[in-house]
């Protein structure tokens, strides 16, 4: 595992109905000030590191980092590199939306050192995109990917969502088929993150389509959508390596793997969460508070041995490799097979967990209820 760095850029052109992240629509008024504060935070936090960090991955997330002026993005990146070094073959990702991508802008990102784009497409159904408040069409999404390829990108990840209001199994399968068709035409599409909707009860989507409205897929349809996702992507050469993530060949996300393998990571920007053992902390979630106190922590938690065990179970069971019981005992001095013998046997009997030699992992039937299963171990 290598050290990661996450940089949060909160600005968006619009607020998606399902979004629960710290975002701001005041791009023009606040961009320069935010970037100045962010650079100061990066320099001051890293100067206090015991040694100059060596980064295996950097992730510009948001928000919509693709909205930043090229000069601001360049300045932030140079500030980070002045205070940290990159390991060979480091992964540097930028998250953005289709409508922000042009050939000229993507070339600027590529020349900066960004070598991976994560594009939030969410659906290839225009009516569905409109229902959830997205600002692009499926045609714009296709053009954006082609423009990124023209700019030189060879590692492109696409985000899709299922469990959306009004989304039948047929609509979801059609969106997947369009993605697969596109991926066959464009081999630079190497990765897909496909997320089941988690409804934020205080968000716009819940107000437009309340949970009790009947607009959302039934539990049976939701499970069928996940099963369809795994089957269709496997047939197209995308291997599932975590509940929501699929990759061709060696194109698994290094940054996200670091999270799931309990690695350490720095983080900068409003609401950003960092984990430098044994502490996990987060910046202020409210933008105005962050701008006033960028080095202040809204939360700071000592991750004790009991919490480490719980998190290792949670993270391990989200991956398709699961948990190696021997390695787990060596790392944490906990014999899971003995401590949770009855639970493991019950879950295997229910068909939601399987054990192969010294590994336990969720089955496809267990993935939709992963959180419930994981909680049983606690």
Topology diagram in text:
Layout: E1 3-9, H1 27-47, E2 54-62, H2 70-83, E3 85-96, H3 103-112, E4 116-122, H4 126-131, H5 138-150, E5 156-162, H6 169-185, E6 189-196, H7 204-208, H8 219-235, E7 239-242, E8 245-247, H9 254-260, E9 265-268, E10 273-276, E11 279-283, H10 287-292, E12 297-302, H11 305-318, E13 323-324, H12 325-332, H13 336-339, H14 341-349, E14 353-356, E15 359-362, H15 370-376
Parallel strand pairs: 1-2, 1-9, 2-3, 3-4, 4-5, 5-6
Antiparallel strand pairs: 6-8, 7-8, 10-11, 11-12, 13-15, 14-15
Helix pairs in contact: 1-2, 2-3, 6-8, 11-15
List keywords for this structure.
2 domains, 378 residues, alpha/beta, TIM Barrel
In short:
The protein is built from 15 helices and 15 strands. It is of the alpha/beta class and 378 residues long.
Protein model, in words:
The chain is α/β, with parallel strands linked by helices and 378 residues long. It folds into two domains: 3-260, Alpha-Beta Barrel (TIM Barrel); 316-376, no CATH class. 42% of the residues lie in helices and 23% in strands. It contains 15 helices and 15 strands. It has helices at residues 27-47, 70-83, 103-112, 126-131, 138-150, 169-185, 204-208, 219-235, 254-260, 287-292, 305-318, 325-332, 336-339, 341-349, 370-376, and strands spanning 3-9, 54-62, 85-96, 116-122, 156-162, 189-196, 239-242, 245-247, 265-268, 273-276, 279-283, 297-302, 323-324, 353-356, 359-362. A nine-stranded mixed beta sheet has the order 7-8-6-5-4-3-2-1-9, with helices on both faces. Strands 10-11-12 form a three-stranded antiparallel beta sheet, with no helix packed on it. α3 links the parallel β3 and β4. The chain is globular, with a radius of gyration of 21 Å. The mean pLDDT is 92.
């Amino acid at each position: 595992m290598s050290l990661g760095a996450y940089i949060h850029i909160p600005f968006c052109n619009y607020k998606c109905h399902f979004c629960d992240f710290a975002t701001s629509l005041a791009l023009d008024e606040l961009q320069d000030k935010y970037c100045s504060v962010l650079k100061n935070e990066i320099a001051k936090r890293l100067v206090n590191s015991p040694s100059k960090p060596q980064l295996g991955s950097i992730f510009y997330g948001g928000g919509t980092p693709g909205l930043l002026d090229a000069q601001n993005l360049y300045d932030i990146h140079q500030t980070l590199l002045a205070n940290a070094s990159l390991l060979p073959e480091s992964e540097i990702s930028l998250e953005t939306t289709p409508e922000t991508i042009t050939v000229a802008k993507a070339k600027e990102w590529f020349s900066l050192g960004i070598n991976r784009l994560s594009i939030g497409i969410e659906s290839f159904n225009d009516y569905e995109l409109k229902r959830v408040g997205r600002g692009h069409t499926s045609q714009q999404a296709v053009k954006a990917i082609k423009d990124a390829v023209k700019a030189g990108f060879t590692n492109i990840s696409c985000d899709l969502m299922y469990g959306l209001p009004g989304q039948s199994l047929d609509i979801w399968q059609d969106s997947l088929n369009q993605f697969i068709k596109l991926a066959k035409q464009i081999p630079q599409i190497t990765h897909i993150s496909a997320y089941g909707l988690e409804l934020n009860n205080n968000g716009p989507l819940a107000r437009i389509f309340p949970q009790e409205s009947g607009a959302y897929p039934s539990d049976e349809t939701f499970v069928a959508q996940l099963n369809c996702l795994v089957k269709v992507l496997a047939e197209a050469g995308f291997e599932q390596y975590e509940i929501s993530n699929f990759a061709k060949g060696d194109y698994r996300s290094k940054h996200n793997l670091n999270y799931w393998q309990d690695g350490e990571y720095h983080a900068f920007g409003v609401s950003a969460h960092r984990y430098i053992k044994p502490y996990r902390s987060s910046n202020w979630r409210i933008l105005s508070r962050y701008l006033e106190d960028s080095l202040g922590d809204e939360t700071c938690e000592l991750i004790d041995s009991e919490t480490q065990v719980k998190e290792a179970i949670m993270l391990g069971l989200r991956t398709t490799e699961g948990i190696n019981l021997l390695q787990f005992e060596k790392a944490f001095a906990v014999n899971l097979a003995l401590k949770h013998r009855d639970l493991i046997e019950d879950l295997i009997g229910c068909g939601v967990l399987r054990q192969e030699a010294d590994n336990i992992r969720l089955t496809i039937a267990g993935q939709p209820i992963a959180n419930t299963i994981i909680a049983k171990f606690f």
